[in-house]
Amino acid sequence: MSQRHEQLQATWSDPPGIWGFLTTVNPRRIAARYVLTAIALLILSGLLALDMRVQLSQPQMHRMTAQLYNESFALHGSTMLFLVSVPVMEAMAMWLVPLMLGQRTMAFPRLNAFSYWLYLGGVMMLWVPHTLGVTPDLGWFEYPPLSGPSYSPGHRADIWAQMITFTEVAALAVSVNVAVTILKMRPPGMTLAKMPAFLWAMLVSAVMTIIALPAVMLVTSMLIADRLVSTHFFSPAGGGDVLLFQHLFWFFGHPEVYIIFLPGVGFVSAIVETFSRRRLFGHVPVVLSMLAIAILAFGLWVHHMFAVGLPKVGNALYTAASMAIALPAGIQIFCFIATIALGKPSYRTPLLWIIAFILTFVIGGLSGIMTASAPLDLQLTDTYFVVAHLHYVLIGGAMFPLFGAFTYWYPKATGRLMSDGWGIVSCALIVGGFNIAFFPMHILGLMGMPRRIYTYGPEMGWGDLNLVATGGTVIASVGASIFVANALISYWRGKRSGADPWSGSTLEWATRSPPSNYAFADVPVVQSAAPMWDNPLGPFPVMRGLSSRCREALVTSLVDANPQCRQPSPGPSIWPLVAALVTSALFVGSIYTPWALVWGAVPLALVLTAWFWPTRPRRKEAQA
Amino acid sequence: MSLPSMRLGSGWIIGMTLLAGCSAEQRTLVAAQPTSPPTGPDDPRIAAIKGNFYQISQGGRYFTWYGCTSCHGEPKTGWPPRLPFVTYYARIGHKGYDRKIAAEQRWQISAYLNSLTVTDAAKRHRQAVDQKGEPTAGQWQGPL
What we know:
- The structure holds two protein chains of two kinds.
- The longest helix of chain A has 35 residues, at 66-100.
- Chain A is built from 19 helices and four strands.
- Chain A has helices at 2-11, 17-23, 27-56, 66-100, 109-131, 156-184, 197-228, 242-276, 283-297, 312-324, 326-342, 349-372, 374-380, 384-414, 420-446, 463-493, 575-592, 595-611, 619-623; strands at residues 523-524, 542-543, 552-556, 563-568.
- Chain A starts with a helix and ends with a helix.
- In chain A, a hairpin with a 6-residue loop joins strand 3 and strand 4 (563-568).
- Chain A has a single domain (2-187, 194-346, 498-623), classed as Cytochrome C Oxidase, Chain A (Up-down Bundle), CATH 1.20.210.10.
- The relative contact order of chain A is 0.12.
- Chain B is an all-alpha fold.
- Chain B has a domain at 57-137.
- Chain B is 56% helix and 0% strand.
- Chain B is built from eight helices and no strands.
- Chain B has helices at residues 2-20, 44-50, 53-65, 68-72, 85-92, 97-100, 103-116, 121-130.
- Chain A binds chain B through residues 18, 21-22, 65-67, 120, 124, 128-129, 131-134, 137, 145, 148-151, 153-156, 226, 229-232, 235-238, 588, and chain B through 1-3, 7, 11, 14-15, 18-19, 21-22, 24-27, 29-30, 53-54, 56-57, 60-61, 120, 122-123, 125-127, 129-133.
């Protein structure tokens, strides 16, 4: 056994030192980088938010200029939506999906590496120019004609548009990987019907990503074309249409909200099940709700555009669709509440985050029903009501589950537990501070305070509520600092957790903490969606037969997860990094000249050829 | 961990190349703008204004608003001719416009005219088309 462990460890290890760092294809190592980069950006965006809240705390503050304020909220929004929320959810999928499938790796390990390097390129695309004073300043959706060649001279809008291309290519790479891994690499016995809700959430959100993201890459590329080679996509007087931008942007933008939210639902399903000591109530309705959300999410993007003057039938249809999506979301919430109510809940920190999610997300959902109604939306659009709503659904619906997930899987990743006491303190401060900060914004919005203003006059009467909101932000920031300190200190001083500190229900708890390079010596055989609870006493049934001398993964059938073949899995390689660097050069160059697309394609083709150069002999040669 | 330092290094290289173009991106919304005509071809304000994208685009909007297009038409190849900055500034004052257009705006229009001589025809047309909805002197129907 121990000899086999050492052989497997050697087969799946990275080269030592810097070379291993650059060439690794270990999904956990890459996902950890993704998560840490996203958390660093989350902290930077939080500081920007704090800065803006201080600016708005009193009327007629002039510590920020209008231009600096514009840059701050544009940077905050773009970073949070494109560089934090979506990537961090994909990183969690990259870390957890292979473990939950009892697999040693993912379907396309090198694609993960390529994805991270390209994501890092996108981060630098936005933040390196920012340190030089060239920051996009038009918000997180940059509508033309404001972002067109006449009204946004210079390269600020180009930087924003090309940052999106970077991150969306990276996101597509991970999503394809997650979808194929879940569909073709499930352990024997894990049929689609017996797949844990977490994996369903990740699968549905990966498929949604694959459908939604090309729209935004297309539209930002059209914007760059308008700006760089003077096409007329978005110039009405030249035969174009500015609303085309909004339609294409929100065809991506609305599903994106659910691409962020559904992984949150996945975290909630896993945490609720484990801490209620009961199998998820209504597994089938929860999964069907995810599918219903995925379908409806592509049919309601127009509710972001009620104020632009579309035909009334269209507005009515999209109002109905927007309200309909509350039904599947509601079914999920009721199933989670029922699981807690019917189980024997132990209120540890992860479950507290989930309760915070339920309370906060329900408030956000209710304000969503209000903004979904076209007549009311005309009044509320571009006010602080919308700011309150979007933060309630994104922070309440995705970030709170993420913090819960971070606490829940922290021992799996590090081998140590985070402090429960400090966890409760930070959870209370963040959730309390968040509600103090954002609830008054509903009232401010109803009073008419528009979003994206850098200051306001004392005669408006908005000062007191804004001061309360800023106070809430400060409280939440203190809580966030405690959360980060807790995570850092626990990394060295935390209580050792062992393989399964929470008696979890899914397969990741079957392997050691932190997982070894190969994670699983043999693929487990499962009988239900909570495999760890099926046979609590006896040894886990496993399927033998995978080599320990070379990298191999098990491929199973799509629906029934019957073993089909042993798939060779690629080892460490420098080519994903080189390919990402060459792609980055192409993207950055295409801001300045259209010829970058032509000349940049040549080195890219060479690098991809090198990447895909066959390393195994052809079948005939092998037989000879 | 020498990778972060490598990234930092490449960041510096990108940074230094961008640094040259960075004052071009600056947006002056509240800072002091020129209130007097250029003192001569060596006036240091000329280089600063004609190299700044924001000042150039503001000049383009004033070009439309003051109705320059009603006599000169949409800027075409060969118009305006390539002239020194001070000459643009002086000629904008023709026909009594020196009393109608503030100095700051004459600076910006001069910078715009200067930029047109190096802008290709397609881009000039694209910019003009983008501004079709802007109010134009002489055709303005709204309140005054």
